[in-house]
TrEMBL record, chain A:
Matches recorded under SUPFAM superfamilies: Histidine-containing phosphotransfer domain, HPT domain (SSF47226)
Name listed for the protein in its UniProt record: Hpt domain-containing protein
Lineage: Bacteria, Pseudomonadati, Bacteroidota, Flavobacteriia, Flavobacteriales
Record organism: Pelagihabitans pacificus
Annotated GO biological process: phosphorelay signal transduction system
InterPro entries: HPT_dom_sf (IPR036641)
Automatic annotation (TrEMBL), chain B:
UniProt-listed Pfam families: LytTR, Response_reg
Record carries keyword Phosphoprotein: yes
SUPFAM superfamilies in UniProt: CheY-like (SSF52172)
PANTHER family: STAGE 0 SPORULATION PROTEIN A HOMOLOG, TRANSCRIPTIONAL REGULATOR-RELATED
Domain (Response regulatory) ranges: 2-114
The HTH LytTR-type domain, residue ranges: 135-233
Species this chain originates from: Pelagihabitans pacificus
Modified residues (4-aspartylphosphate): D53
GO molecular function, one term: DNA binding
The protein, known as: Response regulator transcription factor
């Protein structure tokens, strides 16, 4: 079953501070698409190590959105990319798509 | 306590900043998206705590820790759990927070900061051996590591200094006075208002000058007695 992103970590962190919550969501909405685009570009140009650097950043977003399984997957994928192995790209893209869809709803 | 946050990701900085707002007596003075700007800031400001991301492009958190001579207390923030053991090799690092950082864990970290005393790093002049020490110089936002024992001399040139090593020459926007504070007194000596020399690189000395490699460096009258005192004269 596909893991669903959510804002429970962000809300706990905000502790009722709605200004922070909104500001933070805005930051994620701005950073995530840029990082996802950069990831795709590195894969397209056959640059696995550069892609690994972006996966490192993206996996932090998975954590923020309480996606533990996606995070665990990204940890392994980052290591694979470091040694030039890009075979889990499609699985990783599915996670990116899930988050992209989710960010449009918040 | 005042603190700064260093992380290349805006979201990560926002999280630590938000956590800080929920802790009494912890003020975020500045945030940086790279370690080099933070080092410049720390050269001018006294800060109690640095929340530092390890994994940053170019100049990493580890490079940052190694660069600071008298670092404040440092709390590492990272997604990588496998750096923890290495982190505690540095005395300035008082805690290690794995992202995503929870409030509960952050509060424990703040307690740890308050309860930890970081011993100041020993002054360079007191080092028994200076040969292993490094000096970082800032050129075009890059920090270049120089080995102390490879520096031959430093010359003041207006608003700049020229650092001559065994292999290269670097022009740095700095003053002789400032760099002198960073150099081991045991090895380096100012022999003229425009020159600091590496004492171990002297080839010979004439009345009013020393020869270092191919450089003839003048000795000022006021600095001459100290130079003569330091020479192992027969």
């Amino acid at each position: 079953m596909e893991e669903c992103p959510n804002l429970s970590y962000v809300q706990t962190l905000a502790a009722g501070d709605t200004d922070f919550e909104q500001r933070f969501i805005q930051i994620i909405k701005e950073e995530f698409p840029d990082e996802a685009t950069l990831y795709l570009s590195h894969i397209r140009h056959d640059e696995p190590r550069a892609a690994a650097e972006i996966v490192h950043k993206l996996k932090h977003k998975f954590n923020i959105l309480s996606m533990e399984k996606a995070y665990a997957f990204a940890v392994e994928y980052e290591e694979q990319l470091q040694i030039g192995d890009m075979k889990h790209d499609l699985d990783f893209r599915k996670i990116l798509d899930t988050i992209t869809r989710y960010l449009k709803t918040i | 306590m005042n603190c700064i946050i260093i992380d290349d990701e805006t979201a990560a900085r926002a999280i630590v900043s938000q956590l800080c707002t929920q802790v009494p007596d912890l003020d975020v003075i500045e945030e940086f998206d790279n370690a080099i700007d933070a080092i410049k800031f720390l050269n001018q400001q006294n800060i109690d705590v640095v929340f530092l991301d390890i994994h940053m492009p170019g100049f990493t958190g580890v490079d940052f820790v190694q660069t600071l001579k008298n670092p404040p207390k440092i709390v590492l923030t990272t997604s990588d759990t496998n750096f923890a053991i290495e982190a505690y090799e540095y005395e300035a690092i008082v805690d290690y927070l794995v992202k995503p950082i929870t409030m509960e864990r952050f509060e424990k970290s703040v307690q740890k900061i308050k309860n930890t005393t970081v011993r100041p790093a020993s002054k360079t002049g007191e080092a028994t051996s200076d040969t292993g020490e490094d000096l970082y110089i800032n050129i075009d936002r890059r920090l270049i590591k120089l080995k102390m024992n490879e520096i031959q001399l430093i010359e003041a040139k207006g608003d700049y200094i020229e650092v001559k090593t065994d292999t290269e020459s670097y022009r740095v926007h700095n003053t002789l006075k400032k760099i002198k504070e960073k150099l081991p007194e045991k090895t380096f000596l100012q022999i003229h208002r425009s020159y600091i020399i590496n004492f171990t690189k002297i080839i010979d000395i004439e009345d009013n000058s020393v020869l270092i490699e191919k450089n003839v460096v003048p000795i000022s009258r006021s600095n001459r007695p100290e130079l003569m005192r330091r020479l192992n004269l027969l």
